[in-house]
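Field reference: sequence -> structure
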Amino acid sequence: MREPLRCREPAIATVQLDNEHVRVTRWDFAPGAETGFHRHGWAYVVVPVTDGELLLEMGDGSTASAKLSAGLAYQRVAGTEHNVVNAGPAPLSFVETELKALPG
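Structure field:
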């Protein structure tokens, strides 16, 4: 695993539901906060609670950005590897639902 480029505040993960079918986690980010590099073992759906902008740092060293719109859901496949950073000037939040019935 690659070394982080700089120290950032960690995003706050609050597990809201975790059973044999799904795990639902609310993520809250201060400006500049990050999740830390991780791999998603299951397919997942994200529903932004707030508008915002993310910086996505990929395992291969590349980066991407993504705009979040409150209430506008998106999905990703199992096996996604990245570090998620709040690239905007305001706090942001989203709810992530991992689908355990769809392992990767």
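Note: The first strand starts at residue 12 and ends at 18.
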